[in-house]
Amino acid sequence: xxxxxxxxxxxxxxxxxxxxxxxxxxxxxxxxxxxxxxxxxxxxxxxxxxxxxxxxxxxxxxxxxxxxxxxxxxxxxxxxxxxxxxxxxxxxxxxxxxxxxxxxxxxxxxxxxxxxxxxxxxxxxxxxxxxxxxxxxxxxxxxxxxxxxxxxxxxxxxxxxxxxxxxxxxxxxxxxxxxxxxxxxxxxxxxxxxxxxxxxxxxxxxxxxxxxxxxxxxxxxxxxxxxxxxxxxxxxxxxxxxxxxxxxxxxxxxxxxxxxxxxxxxxxxxxxxxxxxxxxxxxxxxxxxxxxxxxxxxxxxxxxxxxxxxxxxxxxxxxxxxxxxxxxxxxxxxxxxxxxxxxxxxxxxxxxxxxxxxxxxxxxxxxxxxxxxxxxxxxxxxxxxxxxxxxxxxxxxxxxxxxxxxxxxxxxxxxxxxxxxxxxxxxxxxxxxxxxxxxxxxxxxxxxxxxxxxxxxxxxxxxxxxxxxxxxxxxxxxxxxxxxxxxxxxxxxxxxxxxxxxxxxxxxxxxxxxxxxxxxxxxxxxxxxxxxxxxxxxxxxxxxxxxxx
Length: 549
Hints:
This protein is an alpha+beta fold.
């Protein structure tokens, strides 16, 4: 040990300097490491803060609202009835007041064009193409909206019910019936929100007489794309009123509505008859919608390659001639069903309604053996689709893709459309009903934003198909989408002047073609009420400007 120790102690200072770095050098190195670490740390904070204020909006957490935001469990807002598109939002707003909605939109408006945040109002989730979704934006759950209870109000000249924009039509029916009243116009399915249907139009078999639901609104409360809460009607802020009705959610979110009412019946005579001849079928539909003393509801549907149809009807209808009905055979022909309803009051109009139905039917040339009649309550008739919906839900068949296609066809082109589509492009109707019925243009207000054909009478033709997951046959999603494309291409090539109802397009050029001469007005309304394109991004009409990087 001593020789080694002596050798160590005998090392010169110069040797030690070469072996060990000086203290000053160590200090400089440590400072550089500390500075590099601090720069990296601060950069991470900056990136994280940037993410918080853009992708995951930290600032929304700071808003003082009565409801609440959901930032984690947002899956349900990325689904809809169409079951084809899934765009996850950054947050879901569950508002308990209109001010919650206004404050949220105002906040995003004040963030300016540098923010990518958008807002979509979601009702009962019955959109088909992701229209109520907002990718990395905010989805407002309108069914959470609380406010004044539904209230029936009697004016000197009319009666209305004041409701939330997130209220379901089935609830409005039940509330108004307590006063012996009912809304005038409906959709076939009542488990939809007021704001949702009024943003489109709202069409059913009563539209020939009363017009769509957007023709039966007295007043609206709307939150614009600037976060302003505005009451509007025909007399007050009328431009916004008509912009929002049928406006596809582009100009404001409907938070309250005053819906016009009329005296309600209690019972319904529900009738179905069949035709072989399309021209006779449409001529008699048009005859019925043009009369004053006619049925209260007029629809129709197409039946292709279906067997046992009348036997299926027996579960809900009674054949007027059971023997003839049992002997009826379609022989592979395309059938056209006329569906009718006559409203009446139980124990008051029974005899009169039977005579009236008989008189109206005597004017028609349907196949005699196919006359089926049922007597149901008014509520049972209006809520008839829910019965089928519950059955499908119980079998797990409700949450499948629904590639629906809804078209408005001018009267002068409906025969050409039928010849080109029914039995040619469309080979069968087993995947879902195909509705077809006429409405009167005079019952539609041309000041609204909805687009309809130019002729005095036009037809709704609705292909309400359901796709079977994993199928490769004619009930597969791919097959049905191809079929829809062929129908649209036929309409375009034949120059039928058709318009999509519940429209779905992906390019600006397609939207311009859809709106036609209305496009300029539509853009002006957008600039007036939602200039940053914050609202309803899922419609894909306008894109919010992306921030500069």
